[in-house]
Design brief:
This protein has helices at about 10-25, 35-45, 50-60, 65-85, 105-125, 135-150, 205-210, 220-225, 235-240, and strands spanning about 90-95, 100, 165-170, 180-185, 185-190, 200-205, 225-230. By secondary structure, it is an alpha+beta fold. α1 (about 10-25) runs parallel beside α4 and α5 crosses α6.
């Protein structure tokens, strides 16, 4: 088992289906490969209900032969790269929960899926797995900042009442552009660095991604100095991360 719910074949099927979905998404005339119930779930999905969508997609995509899946995955990756070769990377595309993500962010998300789930499979099979930091950084730089700069739709909806207090967190790594994410009254915006902030986070991109997707714990990341937190008010981070979160 790779996770409590997925085998290695399930995990490969999940990534293969995402690549197939993105192949249709980036085509100007692309039609969704999802069944009707999957399309309905996409529109109302939040960070907290991504698992519901994943279950629907896997149930509608029964192939579990790893050889067949990998062949299809590689073909879809080639097609995505072919179709987008001359496209504007800033082109906004519809994503989960009526959010909007730039084209470059969609491709960065696919890279991250390959990295995170490759880590899952390698760990299950007790094999080494390397996540180059410059590749892992694409997820933060292009996807996360990209969706926050465009439109998050319902993606970050939460039952928690919006905080009146403004929380600003600066993020910096050797592989990403410095940026400040601001949470105010339930809305997250992107600002240029230089203004006052409550907390500062210096991070190693692979470690941040693994932590955000709950593969490694916050304490371990801090103890290994892969993620360093500072600033005048770092204790506001839990409130920030209850909204700026990943599945």
């Amino acid at each position: 088992m790779v996770t409590a719910d997925w085998t290695v074949a399930d995990t490969v099927a999940h990534v293969a289906m995402i690549a197939k979905m993105y192949t249709s998404l980036v085509r100007p005339d692309g039609e969704s490969v999802l069944e009707a119930r999957g399309r309905e779930q996409v529109a109302k999905t939040t960070v907290d209900t991504v698992s519901v969508l994943n279950a629907l997609v896997l149930s509608d995509f029964p192939e579990r032969d790893i050889g067949v899946l990998v062949k299809g995955l590689l073909a879809d990756i080639d097609e995505v790269l072919r179709v987008t070769e001359d496209a504007d990377p800033a082109t906004p595309l519809g994503w989960l929960g009526d959010s909007r993500v730039p084209l470059a962010g969609v491709l960065a998300h696919l890279v991250n899926e390959l990295q995170i789930h490759g880590w899952d499979i390698a760990r299950a099979l007790k094999l080494p797995w390397t996540m180059p930091p410059e590749d892992a950084a694409l997820f933060f730089d292009l996807f996360l900042v990209g969706v926050l700069s465009n439109d998050t739709g319902h993606l970050l909806d939460t039952d928690e009442p919006p905080h009146e207090r403004r929380i600003a967190v600066a993020f910096r790594s050797a592989y990403t552009s410095p940026v400040v994410l601001v949470l105010h009254r339930g809305r997250v915006t992107v600002e240029e660095p230089g203004g006052p902030v409550d907390a500062r986070i210096s991070f190693d991109p692979p470690s941040l991604n693994l932590m955000l997707f709950h593969r490694v714990g916050k304490v371990r990341s801090a103890l290994t100095r892969k993620i360093v937190v500072g600033g005048p008010r770092p204790w506001v981070l839990p409130a920030f991360l209850r909204v700026v979160r990943l599945p």
